[in-house]
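Q: Hi! First time doing this. I have a protein sequence and I read that you can turn it into a structure. Is that right? Here it is:
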Amino acid sequence: MKLNNNEDDANLRAPVVVATSDRTGKGNVVASKERSLTRTKAPKKPLVQSYTSCEAMKPNSNDDDDAIANVELVDVELEVLLGIFGVDSHLAIKYTLYDTEGHAALPLLRWSTGTARCFIPCQARHNARTLLSHVELLRQDQHRVDYIHHRAANSTARLNPIGSSIFAEVSVEIGIPLSSYNYIVTIGLGTQIENFSVLLDTGSPLTWIQCVPCDNCYPQIVPIYDPAKSFGFSNIPCNSNYCADLNQFGCSSTDTCLYVINYFDGSFSKGSFIKDTLTFSSDKLLYFRYGCGHNNSWTFGQINGILGLGRGAVSIISQTAGFYNKVFSYCLPSATNKIGYLKLGSSVPSVQYTPMLTNPNLPSMYFLNLIAISVDHERLNLSPTVFTGPGTFLDSGAVISRLPPTAYFALRDTFQQYMTKYPMVPPIEIFDTCYDFTNFQNVSLPQIDLIFEGEVTVTLDSTGIIFTTTTSITCFAFAKNDDDSKVVIIGNVQQRTKNIVIDEKNQQIGFGAHGCS
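A: Yes, that's right. Below is the predicted 3D structure, encoded as structure tokens:
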């Protein structure tokens, strides 16, 4: 395999209606002890002029009784609610504000000491697009891997049951302009469609996006989404099984569903679990359930949120099963000037299938059996149990693949034998095998194949073998786990340019060549 060193530095730039009837049953609530608030009539005069501004008031002001609704001293012990609204006192007074037409707007929480606080839609803290360094991006990827390994070792999550299609397609691009090595797609939200760039994540079932009212939002380029502008928006009751489908959920003071998702590096999203209209390509998915994040901390760039393509009841794949038949396919491009695709409801021709497996500790992930790795058509001398013991899954949200140390060292050492004519440089973060190709116009790489159960062979693209960290420094694009017991992860770099089919209905995963460039 020859790589032209003058080419683009690929790594650098490298309607079905979902049922609306709510079922009963609360499931496992994260916390409780929140007294419900009664509804009252709308005020004669609005307290606010719009959803985008509000006026601070003191609790002892002479506001007309009709002008304040839902006034009650609340013992707020629900950790999720405190996290969402940023209340660091356990006592708060809650008011419901109204817009100019007398419709209830989102709540205003005020300190019990009398200091008022308004919720104003968040704007990005700054408009400058700060591109993170390669070191920071690689550290972020390691944080995700640590989080996955932590979940695999400590998970108590339950497995959700699994059970000629119409299809819809959108383009996939690498997210370097948004300070991310992950891949992004564009979705629309609301009845008056607003478009957002979200991370394509096969490892997460939950779709979420930043929303107003926003107590804490990370910077993004487009305005924060306001679901109140959509005629399709509605809250999900806390006693609905839709709420219980979440891994972690809570109940607001008005008995609506709240969600929280935490990541190993400290990133998180907390907010309301709602229904709204989602537009995917030209298809409108009514009553789509997703997280509307009011309190978000995100270290993975300026992406607007997550498109959850993993397994589970809240996944877009499960929610649209009657429409897209629980099958999707995608191709991840090799550079920022290339375009891939994501198709819901469609397979692709000329793919080989390997069985899809399930890990009870990581039920949202797509597992499969990696049985061997070959270099220039010669298999490494490894027992298949090196891979099948801990298990292997595909993760479009992880960048670099992680192998058991035994397998990694065998692969790395063999790769180095093919690369002896190129000068090595010191390690960079998770990469221990790096080269300086400055004086080489062409670079020869050995062919590397990943071999899955059923002898399904995936030949890696050159950008899945080496990873460019600077204009001159390139590293071997694999990393090792801490020990052989940790789950094996096939990251998005090793998936580049391949047709990949996730067929959950038939419990199989397909691979094909030449999906995109």
